Protein: NADPH:quinone reductase-like Zn-dependent oxidoreductase
Amino acid sequence: MKAIVQDAYGPADVLRLGDVDRPGIGDEEVLVEVRAAAVDPGVWVLMTGRPYLMRVAGFGLRRPKVAVRGRDVAGVVAAVGARVTRFQPGQEVYGTCESGSYAEYASARQSRLAPKPADLTFEQAAAVPVSGMTALQAVRHGARVRPGQRVLVIGASGGVGSFAVQIAKADGASVTGVCGAAKAGLVRSLGADDVIDYAHGEIDRDGRRYDVVIDTAGNRPLSLLRRVLTPRGTLVVVGGGHTAYRFTGGMGRTFRAPLLSMFTGQRLRPLMSRERAEHLEELTRLVESGAVTPVIDRVYPLAAVPDAIRHLTGGHPGGKVVVTVPGAA
Ligand SMILES: NC(=O)c1ccc[n+]([C@@H]2O[C@H](COP(=O)([O-])OP(=O)(O)OC[C@H]3O[C@@H](n4cnc5c(N)ncnc54)[C@H](OP(=O)(O)O)[C@@H]3O)[C@@H](O)[C@H]2O)c1
Structure:
């Protein structure tokens, strides 16, 4: 099958369109004929091998253990393992995969897939899993946003932020989004009540306090984030600003936040997102109720994945960057 593969860590130039074997599947796995995939900063981490911490964490010291990139997947079930009970061939699914989704076929655990929301195209569905689950866990499980609360989403126009704004609004919050000036209209269209243009004012500029701060941008010190929180407010640290730090990926705030939390009334929580079918199903319900619509910035064909990744890391996309994969059958 055709796939985007890499033999070494490095910039997007290390990626090439090649021919590889179709992935095999275990008893609990599903073979998906990929129709669409998406790009997120995690793809950049696995491509570059940075921060170096991830290499010692088991992703491959000198080169990535899994040669094909791409985590989000939407497609059609081609085959199922012996103990798969939730899916059958021909069914349309979405979720995250193990073998890399920038390929004609991908293998995925059944526990990381859900039926594709009927009203979404494959491209829209592929935009949801990684970013949507992260946003859902930040808003509902990390911050437990309640109706009437004031929520600040930093990085509101990005992959995670565009979902977080919509989910917080669906849960009855008053939302302020932080983004660049060019994205203010987009963020308001997602439901944000107010927008702060980060180029023209810092988040503490008007003395406002928030019950919840969700930080996906990852480039502000904890002291500043705490200053805009109410005395018993909750901060969820989602982004680490990984591109700026070679060794640890800016994980310092992630480690310091829970320590500091022990000495203050504010709850300071790092988020390590998990991939679960029940969270995908929760997102399906939000999509089907009309509360959440994935925002697609740009769609690239499979062969142009390197450009898609360059666009994500340098082009300030609004919403998600998606990859289409021509039918393989
Ligand atoms: N903790 C976890 O489990 C988890 C899971 C998924 C992702 N993440 C991390 O979350 C972060 C965000 O991911 P993503 O997919 O949303 O990335 P993304 O699509 O690139 O979005 C990043 C956003 O940050 C905004 N931004 C840049 N500089 C900013 C600033 N100074 N102030 C406010 N906003 C600023 C960008 O807006 P402009 O385009 O307007 O500049 C953009 O909307 C990444 O670090 C990623 O690795 C963590």
About this structure: The mean pLDDT is 94. The two ends are 10 Å apart (CA to CA). Residues 131-270 form a domain with the Rossmann fold fold (CATH 3.40.50.720). The chain has two domains: 2-128+294-324, 131-270.
